């Protein structure tokens, strides 16, 4: 989607959309089949209450200034375009006309992997559990910075680890990126401030509703925070809602609380789309948001004290669409020592130390 409020997030979306449009130029491998990420074009439709209308309108201005094709709809226009929506308490809506939709993340991941392998990258699949740094070499041992010399990688079903010497380390461990920086061998005093990224469980529910919105259904984000979209063309839909901070579910496993749909999500959906009153739940699953508890935006850049460590994580529910831009930006930092395509320095570590969160108003 193109609809964010933070300039960097909009720019990353624009970059990624363009990258995905030309994906075969970027990631195609001669003699291999072309990549089809199964992109389903469909606008996002954000609904705003009277209290949040001004903010939504300001966001759209910024998105348009960056080249995004987003329109504002009055309640009357909204009702004309999507007659199945109950527009009660909606002051204004924003709707994306281009470069929005959904695609298959697994295909994208494998396309990146296949391209990297074709260019000579060697994959080693295991878990990093410990680090060896230059801090251990220094006497007295209270250095102000250090380099990571080795990571210890544990292969699956093996008690032995493989020490891998490294000149550059990129922590892109998703929801576990924060935990990784607490691993054995990293001097605690050099890992301040901690990386505030943790797993937060999010449910996705799937339902059938033959009388539902149908083919014209966008990805709708309600004033209540509940969202849904069409899933195929056979009357199926999927959606969910992030819980309030004080009602976060226990993230220790990926079990689904089906009552959450019944009590919290369904009533909101049915209020906004009355035909959903008769929906039939088909299934549900859970996954982990790579949740940045500081400001729910990605952390991208060089670590302040571990000289050869870079981080790209904490994208908190919008990391898939920003992955091509984040990868490009990080590669530029590593190779050229500066951002070239997009200036993403505000997403760096400095804001964590300075206690200056970046606010994103378009979180789902
Ligand atoms: C329900 C749900 C819906 C979402 N919807 C969207 C959406 O609509 N749009 C969007 O853009 N994003 C969405 N996201 C978020 C998106 O999936 C993430 O932001 C994105 O996958 C993060 O990518 P990543 O590469 O940083 O981390 P990941 O994809 O999580 O990859 C991290 C990898 O690091 C590995 N790892 C962890 N620890 C270690 C270790 N110690 N050693 C070695 N490897 C390790 C993990 O096994 C994993 O393979 C959604 C997430 C969820 C859960």
From TrEMBL:
A GO MF label: oxidoreductase activity
UniProt key word ATP-binding: no
Keyword rRNA processing (UniProt): no
GO BP, sorted A to Z: mitochondrial respiratory chain complex I assembly
Keywords, alphabetical: Oxidoreductase
InterPro entries in the record: FAD-dep_OxRdtase, FAD/NAD-bd_sf
CC terms in the record's Gene Ontology section: mitochondrion
Signal peptide region: none
Domain FAD dependent oxidoreductase: 11-333
Function as written in the Swiss-Prot or TrEMBL entry: Required for the assembly of the mitochondrial membrane respiratory chain NADH dehydrogenase (Complex I). Involved in mid-late stages of complex I assembly.
Protein name in the entry: FAD-dependent oxidoreductase domain-containing protein 1
């Amino acid at each position: 989607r193109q609809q964010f409020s933070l300039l960097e997030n909009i720019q990353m979306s624009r970059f990624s959309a363009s990258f995905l449009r030309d994906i075969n130029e970027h990631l195609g491998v001669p003699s291999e089949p072309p990549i089809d990420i199964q992109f389903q074009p469909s606008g996002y439709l954000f609904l705003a209450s009277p209290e949040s209308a001004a903010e939504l309108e300001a966001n759209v201005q910024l998105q348009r200034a960056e080249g995004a094709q987003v329109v504002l709809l009055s309640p009357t226009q909204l009702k004309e375009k999507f007659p199945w929506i109950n527009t009660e308490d909606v002051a204004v809506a924003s709707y994306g006309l281009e470069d929005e939709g959904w695609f298959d993340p697994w295909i994208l991941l494998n396309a990146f992997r296949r391209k990297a392998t074709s260019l000579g990258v060697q994959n080693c699949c295991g878990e990093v559990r410990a680090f060896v740094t230059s801090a251990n070499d220094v006497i007295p041992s209270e250095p102000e910075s250090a380099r990571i010399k080795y990571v210890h990688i544990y292969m699956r079903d093996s008690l032995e680890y493989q020490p891998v010497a490294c000149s550059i380390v990129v922590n892109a461990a998703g929801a576990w990126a924060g935990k990784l920086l607490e691993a054995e061998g990293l001097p605690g005093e050099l890992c301040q401030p901690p990386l505030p990224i943790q797993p937060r469980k999010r449910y996705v529910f799937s339902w059938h509703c033959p009388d539902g919105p149908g083919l014209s259904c966008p990805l709708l984000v309600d004033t209540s925070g509940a969202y849904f979209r069409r899933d195929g063309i056979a009357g199926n839909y999927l959606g969910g809602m992030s819980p309030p901070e004080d009602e976060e579910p226990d993230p220790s496993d990926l079990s689904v609380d089906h009552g959450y749909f019944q009590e919290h999500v369904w009533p909101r959906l049915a209020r906004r789309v009355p035909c959903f009153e008769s929906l039939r739940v088909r299934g549900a699953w859970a996954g982990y948001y790579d949740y940045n508890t500081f400001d729910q935006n990605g952390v991208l850049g060089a670590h302040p004290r571990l000289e050869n460590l870079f981080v790209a994580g904490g994208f908190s529910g919008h990391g898939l669409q920003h992955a091509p831009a984040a990868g490009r930006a990080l590669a530029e930092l590593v190779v050229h020592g500066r951002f070239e395509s997009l200036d993403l320095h505000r997403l760096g570590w400095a804001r964590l130390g300075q206690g200056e969160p970046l606010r994103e108003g378009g979180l789902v």
